[in-house]
Structures are given as structure tokens and as C-alpha cells.
Amino acid sequence: MEKERICCVCRLKAPASERIRIAREKKPDGGYKYFVDRVGNANGRGCYLCSSCIDTAIKKKAINRSFKAQVCQEIYDELINIQKSLQ
Ligand SMILES: [Zn+2]
Fold it and tell me: Secondary structure of the chain: what % helix, strand, coil (to 5)?
């Protein structure tokens, strides 16, 4: 059975395949690189969003809160693009 994932905005569960995953990868210098994990199985910590929560996540910077870190603006720009492509 497919693993269920909790959206970091609405906290509802849904199959991982219906989620957008934002992953965190440790860089050699000890910092972190954040990216939208389009395949959905990249290593490292990840947080999940359902498509209806993209807008809220952008407005509230929910990804920052989820990782307890400052996530680069490019992540939010990419989410905006994903949202546009879904409309
Ligand atoms: Zn959601």
C-alpha cells in the first residue's frame, strides 16, 4: 500500500503521489539545499503539500515553518509555476 503523507498546511493525509514534495539535502559545506522534488523520492527530509494548499503555503511561507529555516525564494517561485501549470 502507498504511504500516506500529511500536508504541511492543512494537515490532511493523502497518498504521496498526490503531494508536491519539497526536499532538503545536506550540502558538503554543512548547509542545506532546498528543492522541489518532482520525482518524490529524493533523500533527506521532506515536507509535503497538496495542490490546493500551494497558495496558502506561498502566502504564509509554510515551507520555512516546516523546515524551521529560511527557504530560498526560488522554492516559492517554483511553487507559483507549479500552481499555474495546474490551473
Ligand atoms: Zn493541504
Answer: 40, 30, 30
